């Protein structure tokens, strides 16, 4: 079994079978209070009408570009992301589990069908072409191997060895819903730095995936965040 295969098996087991105390901590308020986060481990794949999504995307293009590639580096690239991941992000903006000055207002006006259609449209677009990332750099080593001494897991365990999503192997091991994990390759260093900061300080905490990223981001110092962001931007 390859080291990448072992990493994927380990991550799958950890995500699907989070310790009971971790789940209890994430749930926060008593049972009678509405949940403030969404458990994505049972998230079903999302489908939608690509043409309807394209027709609805004119406003989105102002920030994310007409082909889903961001016009400025503070915004994420959407092209080629899984429809399920994109739908979940819109859903968390709409229900207030994730907040943004622009996106919260935009999502508030969308119906469930709108969100599915937009997600399907951006998923249908070609992703940004691969770059020339330096696997021997500090960022490359963190992404591919992690840093056990600091408690940093390898990013490739969930995001794939090239940042384009995980390689799913046939296995009897329970596997998490890979479609809820984002493609990272080619996202700008500025956007990745902001996202890791938001995970670390709890600004992004509305899903079970975000809870995991909160713990991961807190193991990273500023220099490592910069190194990782630079590596991902050049993938």
UniProtKB/TrEMBL annotation:
Instruction: Tell me where it resides.
Output: Periplasm
Q: Which PROSITE patterns match?
A: CYTC
Transport: is it a keyword of this entry?
yes
Q: Which InterPro entries match?
A: Cyt_c-like_dom, Cyt_c-like_dom_sf, Cytochrome_c4-like, Cytochrome_c_Oxidase_Subunit
Q: Which domain of life is it from?
A: Bacteria
Identify the stretch annotated as signal peptide in this record.
1-24
- Could you tell me what this protein is called? Cytochrome c4
């Amino acid at each position: 079994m390859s080291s990448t295969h072992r990493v994927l098996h380990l991550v799958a087991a950890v995500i699907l079978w989070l310790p009971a105390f971790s789940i209890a901590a994430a749930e926060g308020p008593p049972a009678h209070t509405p949940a403030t986060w969404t458990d994505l481990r049972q998230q079903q794949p999302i489908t939608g009408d690509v043409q309807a999504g394209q027709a609805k995307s004119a406003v989105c293009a102002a920030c994310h570009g007409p082909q889903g590639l961001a016009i400025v580096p503070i915004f994420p690239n959407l092209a080629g992301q899984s429809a399920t991941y994109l739908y979940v992000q819109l859903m968390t903006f709409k229900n207030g589990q994730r907040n943004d000055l622009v996106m919260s207002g935009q999502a508030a006006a969308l119906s469930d069908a709108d969100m599915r259609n937009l997600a399907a449209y951006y998923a249908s677009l070609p992703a940004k072409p691969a770059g020339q990332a330096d696997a021997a750099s500090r960022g490359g080593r963190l992404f591919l191997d992690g840093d056990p001494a600091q408690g940093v897991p390898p990013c490739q365990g969930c995001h794939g060895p090239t940042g384009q999503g995980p390689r799913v192997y046939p296995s009897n091991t329970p596997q998490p819903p890979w479609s809820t994990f984002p493609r990272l390759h080619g996202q700008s260093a500025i956007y990745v730095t902001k996202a890791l900061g938001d995970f670390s300080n709890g600004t992004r905490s509305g899903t079970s995936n975000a809870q995991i990223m909160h713990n991961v981001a807190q193991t990273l110092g500023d220099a490592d965040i910069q190194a990782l962001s630079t590596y991902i931007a050049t993938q």
